[in-house]
Amino acid sequence: MNLQKIVVIGAGTMGSGIAQWFTQQSCSVELVDNSGEQLKKALASIHSSWEKLFEKKKITQEELSKMKGLLSVKMLDQVARDADLVIEAIIENLEIKKSLFTNLDQFFNPKTIISSNTSSFPITLMSEAVSDERKKRFVGLHFFNPATIMKLVEVIKAEQTDAGLCKDLYNWFESKEKKPALSKDSPGFIVNRVARNFYGEPLRIAGTDDEKKMKEIDSILREVGGFKMGPFELMDLIGIDINYSVTCSVWDAYNQEPRFAPHALQKQMVDEKRFGRKSKRGFYTYD
Ligand code: NAI
């Protein structure tokens, strides 16, 4: 498998990290969003991250210029139709994603692999939006946040995905020093199923919007539990809106089992537009 031309759709938290990572693997990357402002913001943030690496002498001037040359930001109708791989990383909304996939199926060459970075929607369900031929080249590729650092990538085979394609993707990621895992197309895949309780239980322990308690729970899990981040810090990094959508979709998929139930505070925060780090306010406040 030779992945050279990549299109990433959605230039938010995940899309910009995924685009940055693929560029760092010397792929040519077109990053797409329906908001021009978001595209500018994502490009500036990726450039600034590379410039910091250059200042710390972790990359050379040549590498810096090469990466800047490989990454471009565009609207969908401006991208080349012959991409090897498209990765969808737009908001976690099934109907919006499905309507995008129907467009992508018609837009890209038959050989292009179309993938989704969804955290929770069944890949088989989303593949209903594409033609039977494309279904063989439609797959889940679930990256973790921040995508440039986290090694795990879940490769999810939908009912009609070509098994050989999943294996080739697995091998390709492994050759690029990611840690791929082949996952069943089940709600929340592997990590987001296991992790539901890492968010749900601390919310139930804190009970209300009490920053002092949240700080205490975060520091216990970090310092005593040995986790890299506490649950409230992590939810702020993920995005409260995204995490809430994922919680609801896994809960529904498991027939609303109480152990997966969303907490009222999650909905309240989404209504208040407290989305976490990306909106400067979530459980905590950021500069
Ligand atoms: P985000 O809210 O940070 O970014 C979403 C971006 O998609 C925004 O820039 C928005 O303008 C753009 N967008 C929305 N509709 C669009 C459309 N029709 N066409 C083009 N662009 C569109 O969301 P985030 O956190 O990056 O999540 C994206 C996907 O990745 C979701 O499916 C989420 O479940 C998944 N994911 C999120 C993780 C996280 O930690 N935030 C981790 C792993 C997966």
How many discrete structural domains?
2
**Estimated share of beta-strand residues:** 5-15%
CATH superfamily (homologous) name of the largest domain: NAD(P)-binding Rossmann-like Domain
Order of helices and strands: EHEHHEEHEHHEEHEHHHHHH
Largest sheet report:
8 strands, mixed
Characterize the structure shown:
- The chain is an alpha/beta fold and 287 residues long.
- α2 (36-55) packs antiparallel against α3 and α12 crosses α13 (264-271).
- The N and C termini lie far apart (43 Å).
- α7 (163-175) links the parallel β7 and β8.
- The radius of gyration is 19 Å and the shape is globular.
- It has two domains: 5-183, Rossmann fold (3-Layer(aba) Sandwich); 196-278, N-(1-d-carboxylethyl)-l-norvaline Dehydrogenase, domain 2, CATH 1.10.1040.50.
- It has an eight-stranded mixed sheet, with helices on both faces.
- 48% of the residues lie in helices and 14% in strands.
- The model has no long low-confidence stretch (mean pLDDT 97).
- It has 13 helices and eight strands.
- The structure holds 1,4-dihydronicotinamide adenine dinucleotide.
